[in-house]
Amino acid sequence: MRPTQITANKSDATLRITWDTGRTVDYPFYQLAAACKCAACNDERARLSAEGKAFVPKSAVLEAIEPVGSYGINILWKDGCRYGIYTWDSLAALA
Question: What is the pLDDT of residue 31?
Fold first, then answer.
């Protein structure tokens, strides 16, 4: 699947993706921030998991979205987290 349209709505904190299948999905920013796969978030997620605790993102305030090749986007969060790549496959799996 590939998106045909991506719209960030900061007022209701959702990212809306319309997929080439015709399906439209609203992703809450918090869900996306919690799914970040950057090295820092993965390290913290592993550390907290070993302690029996859940990962909680530091910020779910979206600063910007950047394309990453033809396979995904990079979301820049207000807390400075900006290295997690959200592939089309990973976003489709979150739907």
Answer: 95
What does the DSSP 8-state code read for residue 66?
Answer: E
Distance between CA atoms of 74 and 53, rounded to whole angstroms? Answer: 26
The answer to whether 62 and 76 are in contact (CB under 8 A) is: yes
CATH of the domain at 53: 3.30.2020.30
For the stretch 5-33, pLDDT in tens is 999 999 999 999 999 999 999 999 999 99
Host H or E run for residue 75: strand 72-77
Q: Which residues are CB-neighbours of 45 under 8 A, at least 6 positions away?
A: 55
What range does the domain containing 7 cover? 3-94
pLDDT of residue 25: 98
Question: What residues form DSSP beta bridges with 7?
Answer: 16
